[in-house]
Structures are given as structure tokens and as C-alpha cells.
Amino acid sequence: MTERLSPDEGGIARAAALLRAGETVAFPTETVYGLGADATDARAVAAIFAAKGRPRFNPLIAHYARAEAAFADVVATPLAAALAEAFWPGPLTLVLPRREGSRVADLVSAGLSALAVRVPAHPLARALLAAAARPIAAPSANRSGHVSPTSAAHVLAELEGRIAAVIDGGACPVGVESTVLDLSGAAPRLLRPGGVSVEALAPLTGPLARAAGDAALLSPGLLKSHYAPTLPLRRDAVRIAGNEALLAFGAPLAGAALVFQLSAEGDLDEAAARLFAGLRFLDAEGSARGLAGIAAMPVPEVGLGLAINDRLARAAYREAPASWEGGKSG
Ligand code: TXA
Ligand code: MG
Known about the structure:
The protein has helices spanning 9-20, 42-52, 67-70, 78-87, 123-132, 152-159, 198-205, 215-218, 268-288, 305-316; strands spanning 3-5, 25-28, 33-38, 61-63, 92-97, 114-118, 136-137, 165-167, 179-182, 189-192, 233-234, 244-248, 258-261, 293-296. The protein is of the alpha/beta class and 330 residues long. It has 2 domains: 3-210, Alpha-Beta Complex (DHBP synthase), CATH 3.90.870; 233-315, Rossmann fold (3-Layer(aba) Sandwich), CATH 3.40.50. It has a 10-stranded mixed sheet, sandwiched between helices. A hairpin with a 4-residue loop joins strand 2 and strand 3. Magnesium ion is lined by residues 139-140, 148, 329-330.
């Protein structure tokens, strides 16, 4: 039902034609696979929410081939222009005031006055955006509340039959989602740590604190089932039980029933690229073997470690009000 498209000119042309016809197409970016639709077509954007089971109040990122096209839909500040110059194309998303007269559907920003924009670096994403010749709204291509996909197989495992097509571009090199920076207020706020580290941003932004209003961290309900594996996950493990699966970082703890190594050398970039595949593997294999849970070894809070720890914290979170469907960052 869902077309598999090859990562070549023919596949890109087919994907662009589907997008222009209002269909949903999953495609690789350098961070994770996105589920794309024509951002100027409210019906197409609505189909993203339907396919993912995503709450409509959770806004989407609009993706562009070039910074100039992005800044035609939002009002760029001098800082935004400098960040775009330094980090686009790349894993950085900027939240800026919508420009009046922008063709982007209100549903993309969930009715908010600020719109999230990004110019991705992956060559297939860039080719697709150029061929589609319009902004493409794209959340991560997973069912709402699940771990982001870093391969076409991950996408199909959750969205087969629910989306028109997927471009198979192999594994995503960065592996965690983009850094989301809110530039719509007086001072820049970090909404989500991601593929561009706060250390790399600091020369332009100054020191970045997590947004004080970041509901996803302040309100536990917003963490519910986000990036959630089926098996319970505990963090900062220093010893391991025989019925636990181990998410290792560096020299693995002895005695685990099952091990997935994020990076034997303790390399944070390698660990980020392997994180979601590792969570999926330990969850599926650990469940099949009847294991009690997943124990994650500590990861240092520097560089991409900030994004890794953020995703692990969300994966470890379990309780929340039953009324809440999906997470803030679905
Ligand atoms: O790396 C990525 O960012 C991937 C690839 C496909 O580009 N996309 C992605 O999208 O992770 P999504 O929808 O899974 O996460 C986007 C995050 C959410 O936490 C959403 O709430 C936030 O960005 N966001 C989007 N628009 C926003 C806005 N106008 N104001 C505040 N937050 C916004
Ligand atoms: Mg997501």
C-alpha cells in the first residue's frame, strides 16, 4: 500500500509529484525520517496528523530548500539570519513570527503566531524540497508518542498503509531530532536540545538555558508516552540485573541479558546516531525474551549528550494523567 521509492532521480520525482498532489511522503533527513506534506495545503497537512495520530495542538516544522524561502514565511531577526548562515542547511529549527500573507496553512503552526522553520542538510531531503518547490511540513515519521524513525524500515513498521510513500535513504547520520530554538521572544529559548549542540550555538546565542516555559519538562503529563518503549526504562544505571537489557555507553556493565552498545569509545555523535535504533532493538528483543526492563548507562551532559539525555528522560517517564494523548513533541 505504501510505495517504496528509491533514493535516485526517479524516486525523488515520484515523491515530489505525490507531495504536489496533496499526499503524505516520508523522507530521510540528516536527523530522523520526516513525514512530509505540502505545507500550503491544509488538507494535506491534516493527513499528517491523521496518519500519526498526533494531537492537533502540537505544531509542525516547515522545511525549505533554502533560507531565503524560509524567511519569506517568517520574520527573521538579525540573530536568526546569523544562525541560518552558520547552521543551515542543518539540524537547527528556528521558531519565528509568521509573516503576514504567508501561504503556510495555519494548521502547521497549530494556530500559533510563530512558525518553526528549518533547512535540512540531507541531500535527498534537499533534492525533494527543490523538486516539490514549496514548503513541506514534516514531523518525525512515527506514530505519535513513539520513538522517531532513523530508517525506512522504522517508518514502515509504524506507518505502512497509512502514508502514500517512503523514500529509502538508509540510516540517518545524526540520529536525534533538530535543536528547536524559539527566537520569537525577547531572548532566545531552547525548546528542544538536538542535532546542533548548545556549545556550538553559544558564540551566537550566548549561554542558552532550557526554556522556563518548556511544558514538556515542567509538566510531567506532557512527557507521557513520548519516545516511550514498551519496556520500562531506567537511567544512569551503575549495576544491572540479570533480567534487564542494557543500553551501553562505553565499557558495558557486566551481567546483562541483552546489550546494545551506543558507542564503545564513548563517542556522543556515534551514540546519538544509534540511540533510536538501539531503543527499538532492546524494546522488541527484550520484550520477546520476556525481560523486565531496559537499563541505560549514564551519558555525559555535553554536546549531543544533552539531546540524548533529553530523549532518555522522556523514554523513562511513565506516569501521567490519563486524559493526555501524546506528548508535546509528538
Ligand atoms: O529533526 C527534526 O526536527 C525532525 C525532522 C523531520 O526535521 N522533525 C521533528 O518534528 O522532529 P516533530 O514534529 O516531531 O518535532 C517538532 C518539535 C515539536 O516539539 C513541536 O512542538 C515543536 O517542534 N514546534 C513546532 N512548531 C512550533 C512552534 N510554532 N512553536 C513552538 N514549538 C514548535
Ligand atoms: Mg516527533
